[in-house]
Amino acid sequence: MLLAELTWPEVAALNRDIPVVFPVAALEQHGPHAPLFTDSLLMGEIARRAEERLGSAALFAPLQWLGNSHHHLDFPGTLSAEPRLYLDLLAGLLENFIGHGFRRLLILNGHGGNDVPGKQAVFEVRQRHRQRRDLLLLFGTYWHLTDRAAQAQPDLQEAALGHACEWETSMVLRLNPRLIKGHVGVPDQERGHPFEPASRGWIMPDRSVQGHVGEPRHATAEKGEALFEVFSVGVVEMIRRMSAWDGTSWNG
User: Fold this and answer.
1) Which of the listed residues 17, 99, 133, 139 has the most CB atoms within 10 Å of its CB?
2) Domain range spanning residue 126?
3) Domain count for the chain
4) Is residue 191, in this structure, part of any structural domain at all?
5) What does 12-51 look like in DSSP terms, one character per residue?
6) 175 part of a folded domain
7) Which run of H or of E encompasses 140?
């Protein structure tokens, strides 16, 4: 179900254990070849496919396209919410629906820069409702919800998602090929090993002069379709786990 298409009485009549999904993404640079709206285009399509599969078994809010993208601000066109402001925005979405009585909430993420504030938002909201034992508050990034993506299509060259990489470029090609401009001529950009296992503070120019990470020259629309399929299934599986949760236990 799409929240935007319901009336308030229809929302009021819903079972409060229905999973509620808040898709979030970004508007930021994606190298010299891919559109600024890449993350939001991809997250929107994955959410659309998941909603179609689930029907009335889940409630999907509209995509929140503004994300935490400060590490891309060296590149023109990027829009970014201040990190604390973004964290509070996500927490507010959860609080809105807790206030409406819903108990199983998922922030479904499509942008790596949202990972830290998104997890912190879920953590902080849970602390505000310490007396509750019936709340399931989740943050999940779509490419982390499946371990099958690297095998989605036999010709995939990259083993994981990067930034404006083979995977993301392929998915945009599947959606709208006119939005990709000259990806075959874009040079490879290695992912590197930034002081792992420590977590390094970084901005994109630390990693890539052109703003991409990966090998977009390998992208095809066929690979994009295969990736959309496997990512959508991973989202559906997570939401079905939310539905099956017994309402109190740690495991799910």
Assistant:
1) 139
2) 3-184+202-244
3) 1
4) no
5) HTS-TTS-EEEEE--B--BTBTB-TTHHHHHHHHHHHHHH
6) yes
7) strand 136-141
Could you give the CA distance from residue 121 to residue 123 in angstroms, rounded to a whole number?
A: 5
Q: Which residues pair with 106 in a beta bridge?
A: 21, 138
Q: What is the pLDDT of residues 188-219, one digit of tens each?
A: 999 988 899 999 999 999 999 999 999 999 99
Q: Tell me which H or E stretch contains 105.
A: strand 104-109
Does 252 have pLDDT greater than 90?
no
Phi-psi region of 28 (alpha: psi -120 to 50; beta: other; left: phi over 0): beta
- Burial label for 204, CB within 10 Å (0-12, 13-18, 19+), is buried
pLDDT in tens, 101-137: 999 999 999 999 999 999 999 999 999 999 999 999 9
pTM of the model: 0.96
What CATH number corresponds to the domain at position 12? 3.40.50.10310
